[in-house]
Write a structure and sequence with these properties.
The structure holds two protein chains of two kinds. Chain A is an all-alpha fold. Chain A is built from 13 helices and no strands. Helix content of chain B is 32%, strand content 25%. Chain B has a six-stranded mixed β-sheet with strand order 6-7-8-3-9-10, sandwiched between helices. In chain B, strands 2-1-4-5 form a four-stranded antiparallel β-sheet, with helices on one face. The chains are: A mainly alpha, B alpha/beta.
Chain lengths: 267, 242
């Protein structure tokens, strides 16, 4: 089956895409899990839906338009919640629903050819282009640079953000960079796994790794390994049994998570 | 020496601190005492340069902290520090947190840094617990880890905000005994607390605050009249039952 994949360019691209996407998101997964940021990941993916609809309507390049859209909305969330003293989660929920509403209206306004939106909702790895592979490669490097350079700061701001600030750790700056990187990972991985399923890829490898070890560096390595097993395995299963790739990846990641619970319970 | 001159601070038009003039000499074991909302924590945060929009001046060793913030001043134990019990940080990791801001961006902790952290943990009586995860420590042990974190910056000042809050009676006595030992080694200590009994027993200087200063002198000169003035009503001191 592996040899079949290398016979066709689009299948090779699909394999490279899932490997890169898993490599990118798994590096952030442990911190997303520890900082309990899954909700923000969920919000970004739904906000990305409106960005995708906008890119389709105005006919611009999908990744850059969607990324800019998500970053602008993320900044708006921060400004509104800080300026008007709202709980950030409440504002995130409002913008999440608003973005979905905007996305649906924008798709409705699109009188031209509208591609199958389910490809974006649930992912279609066969649509991956050379540009997408380039963006994914850049993200892998950017994520690696981030976790290497800011590990100490991320560790302490994840432990307790306010105390990190008291000890003059530049928590705000590092957290903003992390948030932008998180948004970029979601947007770029949307074609691989889809708006609806991307949060699972962002959370499951990290939470599974943390079930097995409390050593955070080892957890990051395990997160990478589980993400690769889930993604490559899920893709191969989807080819073999003609299943949707994004859903297959998530289900395999979930099975690994369930298996890790046995070890956690034993410990 | 810490000198506070003509300090005034308001939040949204409400005066929190009014005309505070105060000197804390080197080697002092000082305590700020007062009712809830008296401005104790605010005063501590101003001295730590965490609040900056005040009127007046704070001099630390003759240097105005507003114009020249001193990085190594951060020997601070904040009030009620919460954490996720499953967070994978060891006692050593949390101690090193006190050094992370000083170390700066893009620099990893070295073996020397880790040895310094272990030495701080030894000073607070936690030798052998360096690699233990914080979730498995008792409340008293965790408080000592936080004290160890406050020590690692090697500041000659140590600031503590209600350190007794999460401790039982025995733990409080042990903790203040430890502070006394640190004070004897030359640390100038400033502690914010509600507990008059423990403060009068261990501290050399009492600062009674309720928006303005009501008392600022040796602990042995402290009496019930000052308490009544500060709390605004007749007050009876009871032994606190934790």
């Amino acid at each position: 089956m592996i040899s079949d994949i290398f016979q066709y360019r689009f299948l090779t691209n699909a394999l490279i895409a899932v490997v890169l996407s898993a490599a990118a998101t798994s590096q952030l997964s442990v911190f997303v899990t520890l900082k309990k940021m899954s909700f923000l990941g969920e919000a970004f993916s739904h906000i990305a839906f409106a960005g995708i609809a906008l890119a389709l309507l105005i006919g611009t390049e999908f990744t850059i338009t969607t990324l800019l859209f998500v970053i602008i909305v993320a900044i708006l969330i921060g400004v509104v919640s800080k300026y008007y003293h709202y709980q950030e989660t409440n504002i995130v929920t409002i913008f999440l629903s608003l973005s979905m509403a905007i996305g649906i209206i924008l798709l409705n306004l699109n009188r031209d050819y509208t591609p199958d939106i389910t490809s974006y909702l649930f992912g279609n790895v066969l649509l991956v282009t050379a540009n997408d592979l380039l963006y994914l490669s850049i993200l892998v490097i950017a994520n690696l640079a981030f976790v290497t350079l800011f590990f100490k700061e991320m560790f302490y701001l994840t432990y307790n953000f306010n105390v990190a600030t008291l000890y003059r750790i530049p928590a705000n700056t590092v957290y903003y960079i992390f948030t932008i990187l998180l948004a970029a990972n979601i947007v770029v991985s949307v074609k691989v796994i889809g708006v609806i399923l991307i949060t699972a890829q962002l959370i499951l490898p990290g939470i599974t790794a943390l079930n097995l070890t409390r050593n955070i560096k080892l957890a990051m390595i395990l997160s990478f390994v589980f993400a690769q097993i889930g993604s490559v395995g899920g893709l191969l299963l989807s080819f073999r049994y003609n299943l949707p790739s994004g859903a297959s990846i998530v289900i395999l990641l979930f099975i690994i998570f369930i298996a890790s619970l046995a070890v956690k319970t034993k410990n | 020496m810490i000198e506070i001159k003509n300090l005034n601070y308001s939040i949204k038009g409400k005066q929190v601190l009014e005309n505070i003039n105060l000197t804390i000499n080197d080697g002092e074991f000082a305590a700020i005492l007062g009712p809830n909302g008296a401005g104790k924590t605010t005063l501590l945060k101003i001295i730590l340069n965490l609040i900056k929009d005040y009127q007046g001046s704070i001099l630390v060793d003759g240097t105005n902290i507003k114009t020249r913030p001193e990085k190594r001043i951060i020997g601070y134990l904040p009030q009620n520090e919460t954490f996720d019990i499953d967070f994978p940080a060891t006692a050593r990791d949390i101690t090193l947190m006190g050094y992370a801001g000083i170390k700066g961006l893009f620099k990893r902790f070295s073996d020397t840094d880790r040895n310094i952290a272990d030495n701080c943990l030894r000073k607070v009586g936690l030798s052998g617990k360096e690699s233990q995860y914080i979730g498995s420590l008792s409340g008293g042990e965790f408080q000592r880890v936080l004290l160890s974190r406050a020590l690692i910056s090697d500041s000659k000042y140590l600031f503590l905000d209600e350190p007794e809050a999460s401790l039982d009676k025995q733990g409080v006595a042990g903790f203040f005994e430890l502070l006394r030992q640190l004070n004897k080694t030359g640390k100038t200590i400033l502690v914010v607390s509600h507990d008059i009994n423990i403060l009068t027993k261990y501290c050399s200087l009492l600062i009674c605050l309720n928006r303005t200063l009501h008392f600022h002198d040796k602990a042995e000169l402290f009496n019930s009249e000052i308490i009544t003035n500060m709390y605004g009503e007749a007050t009876r001191i009871l032994e606190k039952d934790y």
